[in-house]
């Protein structure tokens, strides 16, 4: 089983924020054949390789170098993507390159991580875990995912989600629907400079979380989530709207909407309620336990910087 951690930024002073969870999971997962990939910026690969030198089932990879390889003929011959992947790879390159420019706020690196997580889910598959996730005991259980999945803090349908289309955006990117929390659609579209969004239909959802995702490679759910994220980012980039006082909230809402879109997709691309693709969690103080997987998420109140 492939398990991915990502940290976008230099190594943290508090190692519980970046490597401790991955180290503990790698230790307990060694006997199960778990393969852990720790993704970071190319500039920090050597440093993180030292952190994981004693963990033979951990591979440290650089985000930028992987994206460069993903465009090459040899890589594409071996890992042939099944959707319009050239656009996705190009969009992901733009997101990473722009996000690391000197004029881009450091806080945007958290949004690079979100986009990268969706990219990994589609192109690689397995599990993507935020730093701060570790086994909750001496064992953990990560079955091979058969669908795009995410955690939920509640079981009740209480959040209104609108499903609609960006009908006035040209190109293949406009094909298919997007989903966002109904209360923020107008604000997100205004920040995108996309006036008068379509009404669409409202669905109800539990409270989703996005700090852990799972998917088989090339799932329709992972593709729908990745496509929506890249579409909104690229449209905002085109309209020079990526940096503003309100833009960070746009991306926080966006990742949740993208994940919901993915959760409601079947492999034949029909729409289904999300409940069958959720792990229900038990909040406990600053932690959340995913009992079915024996994993614990600790909120450190910070993002990679």
Give structural notes.
- By secondary structure, this protein is an alpha/beta fold.
- It has one domain.
- The protein contains 9 helices and 14 strands.
- The strands form 4 sheets. It has a 5-stranded mixed beta sheet with strand order 3-2-1-4-10, sandwiched between helices. It has a 4-stranded antiparallel beta sheet with strand order 5-14-13-12. The protein has a 3-stranded antiparallel beta sheet with strand order 8-7-9.
- The longest helix has 19 residues.
- The model has no long low-confidence stretch (mean pLDDT 88).
Can you summarize this structure?
The protein has 305 residues and is α/β, with parallel strands linked by helices.
Q: What are the main properties of this structure?
A:
14 strands; globular; five-stranded mixed β-sheet; 9 helices; 20% strand; four-stranded antiparallel β-sheet; 305 residues; alpha/beta
Helices and strands, in order, run as: EHEHEHHHHEEEEEHEEHHEEEE
- Rg calc: 18 Å
Secondary-structure content class: alpha/beta
| Spans of at least 5 consecutive residues with low confidence | none
Q: How many domains is the backbone divided into?
A: 1
Chain-averaged pLDDT: 88
Q: Given the C-alpha coordinates, what overall shape results?
A: globular
Major sheet details: 5 strands, mixed
Helix count, DSSP H or I runs of 4 or more residues: 9
Which percent bin holds the helix content? 25-40%
Query: Within the largest sheet, what's the order of strands?
Result: 3-2-1-4-10
